[in-house]
Amino acid sequence: MATRERLKNILATVVTTWLTEVRAKIFGYVLNPIGQRSPNKILWKKLIGESLPKPEMLKRCGKGPPKKGQGKRAAKRSK
């Protein structure tokens, strides 16, 4: 009887490890069975460095706010 229970336990651990591997492949997880620290968390973060703020990016594309005195009201008055 003891051998049968051992066999069940071994089979259960094999199935659960296989299931976690398959789950990691399907959902794109990083498998870490040992539990060591990995740099994956750092690699997925946004890059830190010089980046333009949103209003400045919009200005460069020509979609920023109009200059003072050239908005909708000024366009209506000049017509």
TrEMBL record:
Record field: compositional bias (Basic residues): 60-79
Keywords annotated in UniProt: Mitochondrion, Ribonucleoprotein, Ribosomal protein
One of the record's GO cellular component terms: mitochondrion
Compartments reported by the entry: Mitochondrion
Signal peptide: none
Keyword GTP-binding (UniProt): no
Protein name: Small ribosomal subunit protein mS33
UniProt source species: Citrus clementina (Clementine)
Organism lineage: Eukaryota, Viridiplantae, Streptophyta, Embryophyta, Tracheophyta
